[in-house]
Each structure stands twice: as C-alpha cells, then as structure tokens.
Design goal:
Elements lengths: L1 E5 L4 H12 L3 E6 L14 E4 L5 H7 L5 E4 L6 H6 L1 H21 L4 E5 L24 H15 L6 E7 L1 E3 L15 H10 L5 E4 L11 E2 L1 E3 H16 L5 E5 L6 E2 H12 L5 E4 L8 E2 L4 H7 L8 H12 L2
Parallel strand pairs: 1-2, 1-4, 2-3, 4-5, 5-6, 6-11, 7-10, 8-13, 9-14
Antiparallel strand pairs: 9-12
The structure holds nicotinamide-adenine-dinucleotide.
C-alpha cells in the first residue's frame, strides 16, 4: 500500500512510518513541522511540508494514495483547556479537510490516532471500548468529535479505525520523543537523570494505589506503530471499522515505579518534588486491549518497563 501519514514527522508518526516501510508499504509524510522534526522523517518516505488545513495541498498529497494514517494533531491537555479554539481547529476542522479530500480521492481507509482521553474519568478499570465516552478537556472532545465524524462519513464509503491509547513511550532506531514542551513522565524523568532538568514533580502521593502515586498505561512506540499498520491491513481486508483500545494489558505502572526504574536503568540520581494532586487526575488509568487482541491479533511485545525506559534512555544519548 501507498500510505499518507499525517504528522509523520512527529514522535509516534515517525515510528509508524518506520513500521510501514519495514512491512513493505510505501509512505508519504505530510507534516507542517509545527511540532515535528524534518530529520525524523524516514529516508525512504516522501515528505510534503504542508499544513492539513490547506485543502489543495492535501488533495495533491492524496494522489496515488491507497490509505491514510491520521496522526497530525495538537495534544497538550492543559493547553487545550486554555485555548480550545486551537484544538477544535487543528484536531477537528483540519481532520475534516482531510476527510473531504479523501472523498474526492481513491483513498477509502483511514486509521486515526485517537486517545484514551475520550473516556474522561472512567468509573471502572481497565477501560473497555463499550464504556461511556465523556472527555473532560477540549483535547479529548476534539478527538471524540473527529471519531464521530468518521462514523458518519461512512455514508461516503470511507471506513476508519480509531486507536485509543494513553502514554506512548520508548524509542526505536529512528523514532524518539522530542516534544517541546515535554509533559510526558518518562522523558521528563530522563531529562532529570541527564541533568537538563533539576527535578521531577510528582503530583499527589496519597492516591488509593499501592504506593500512593497515580498508575498509568505505557505502551512502547513500536507496539503502537505495529497496531496502526495492523489496523490499516485489517481495513484493506474488509474490517468494518470502529474503535480499539491499545493498553498495556490492564496492569499499568505507578509514577513512583517509573522513577525507580529510571534510576535503575540510568544509574543516576533523580530528584523528586512531591506536589499537590492535579484536578481531574484519576488514581488509575489503564485500557483493556482485549478487543484488538481478539479481532486483529495485536499484543504488545515490549511491556517490561525497564525495556521501555531503557530504549528511551538509549535514544537520548545517541
Ligand atoms: N504521545 C502520546 O502519548 C499520545 C497518546 C495518545 C494519542 N496520541 C496521538 O497520537 C498522535 C501523535 O502524537 P505524538 O506524541 O507523536 O505528537 P507529535 O506532536 O510528536 O506529532 C504530531 C505531528 O503532527 C504535526 N502536525 C500538527 N498539526 C499539523 C497540521 N495542521 N498539519 C500538518 N502537520 C501537523 C506536527 O508537526 C507533529 O509532527 C496525535 O494525534 C496524538 O493526539 C499521542
């Protein structure tokens, strides 16, 4: 397949492109480099530096494309609360530009990088796809609104799979996490180990969890990338589309466990400051992957936290 990857110069996008090419597909990356990096684009991928909001450019990019992986987005929860317009514009309006361009093209299948933030603060763990969706911020709302659009655009013959996940982590030979600002726990902790940040703040240590800190789901970026390619191949094979969670198997790791593993992996001291709980941070957030495992045969290969943190640490030092 020749696959258009929006956001393919970003963290997970560069991993998806790597996996597509490894699996024998061809990749066209469309990215405006607002957050991505030119050197993250796989050398064998075509690269188009464009904004998804430019309908003419998107139509051109779709020439000869069989399917789309849509990863381009803004994804900072806190920023989305202060500036919802930015999130509706980039995550919903720009997504609709893409869908309308697809209607005029031969591409009929799309895999969407959604988020487990569509569930909000779920009543039970691990979260399943049939659980209610109730986002608590404009980021999650904008992603859910696009998921809904995908369902209704089925009337034009488009079929789509939305992948809902929490924390991508780790690195591969070509893809590593370089967000600015960095808000994700593992890269922040490793920057403290490297000495580029003074300390990491742990938000709350009195949660009803084994060690009092929040428990979260971490998935290695190569496992996420494989899921995106599997989903594309499933659509080509007739999968009707819908939503699948990607989770680490229902366990999750606490913030304290992440910091302890990072200390062991790096052999360095990591200074920690304990701050108050953040509003809206549930004690545990983990997703069940049973549906994607049963229907698409996906299982994570790199679940061990040491391997995940270790790959991120190696990538920071190369
Ligand atoms: N990182 C995570 O833990 C995580 C978790 C759940 C979902 N997601 C979703 O996965 C996707 C990728 O996340 P990431 O962490 O790799 O983010 P990222 O910021 O590294 O990558 C996003 C890419 O999209 C590009 N982009 C943004 N708006 C664009 C536009 N209008 N036109 C063209 N390009 C545009 C950016 O330049 C960037 O390269 C996002 O959709 C995000 O919401 C990420």
């Amino acid at each position: 397949m020749r696959v258009l990857v929006t956001g393919g110069a970003g963290y997970i996008g560069s991993g998806v492109v790597e996996e597509l090419i490894r699996s024998g597909h061809r990749a066209v990356v469309l990215d405006n480099l607002s957050k991505g990096h030119r050197d993250a684009v796989h050398p064998e991928a075509e690269f188009i530096e464009e904004d998804l909001l430019h309908a003419d450019a998107v139509r051109l990019a779709l020439h000869g494309v069989d399917a789309v992986v849509h990863m381009a987005a803004d994804s900072l929860v806190g920023e989305s609360v202060g500036n919802p317009a930015k999130y509706y514009r980039n995550n919903l309006v720009a997504g609709l530009v893409l869908l309308d361009a697809m209607r005029e093209s031969g591409a009929r299948h799309l895999v969407f990088s959604s988020t487990a933030a569509v569930y909000g603060e779920p009543a039970k763990q691990p979260i399943e796809e049939r659980d209610p969706t109730a986002p608590t911020n404009p980021y999650g709302e904008s992603k859910l609104a696009f998921e809904h659009a995908l369902r209704w655009y089925g009337v034009y013959g488009l079929r789509a799979i939305s992948l809902r996940y929490f924390n991508a982590a780790g690195a591969t030979a070509l893809c590593r996490e370089r967000h600015d600002p960095e808000t994700h726990l593992i890269p922040v902790v490793l920057q403290v180990a490297l000495g580029t940040l003074p300390e990491v703040t742990v938000f709350g240590s009195d949660y009803p969890t084994p060690d009092g800190t929040c428990v979260r789901d971490y998935i290695h970026v190569s496992d996420l990338a494989r899921a995106h390619v599997l989903a594309l191949e499933a659509l080509a094979g007739g999968n009707p589309g819908g939503a699948y969670n990607l989770g680490c198997g229902g366990k999750g790791y606490s913030v304290k466990q992440v910091i302890d593993v990072a200390r062991a992996v790096t052999g360095r001291e990591i200074a920690v400051r304990t701050g108050p709980r953040r509003p809206g941070d549930p004690p545990v957030l983990v997703a069940s992957s049973q549906r994607i495992s049963a229907e698409l045969g996906w299982t994570p290969h790199l679940q061990d936290l040491r391997e995940i943190v270790g790959s991120a640490w190696d990538s920071l030092r190369r």
